[in-house]
Fold this protein.
Amino acid sequence: MAGCCGNDTKFDGASLAFKRTLIAVIAINGTMFITEIIAGIAAGSQALLADALDFLGDTATYGLSLAVIGMPLIVRARAALIKGISLAVMGLWVFGSTLYHALSTSTPQAEIMGAVGFLALVANLASVLLLLKYRDGDANVRSVWLCSRNDAIGNVAVILAASGVWASQTAWPDLVVAGLMASLFLWSSLQIIRQARAETLQAQPA
């Protein structure tokens, strides 16, 4: 692990335990994507759909993380860079979709939002706990931790949005939370891209 015995080399994920953990997290995310996309459409919730898209993105990018484990640093850094850019694109899409739905007068179904948001929170907390000891790895490994942490934060926000929709009988809490989630996607993408670029430079010959 990073800093162990005076060694500044970041953990690169090349362990059987991490690979098994990553496979479990991929399964959790894939299952929750299907669950949330159905629930988001049924509830008419932009926040749930944004969270479902996040689960889909995580499933794909975690698969990429698994594929590049053990490869040279330059390959892992470039994979992390792709994930960072993808996260930024997803954040921009959520922003645009939220602005579009701000013109709609329909109110999401708070009960579905709250129930599915809680289920997603449990799933993401399980992922966060599984990945906790790997949070200080290289850009490729750290990106997995950041995405799972963001998901848990997003799920709490969805539950709060459901409460706001129920109390106000308007869609605004749902839209505000979707916008905040998009901002979190963009901030995390910036962190991943910065570390990936630094590792890319580190891997290049002097």
Summary: DSSP finds six helices and no strands in the chain. The chain has a mean pLDDT of 80. Helices lie at 16-43, 46-68, 73-101, 110-131, 139-168, 172-203.
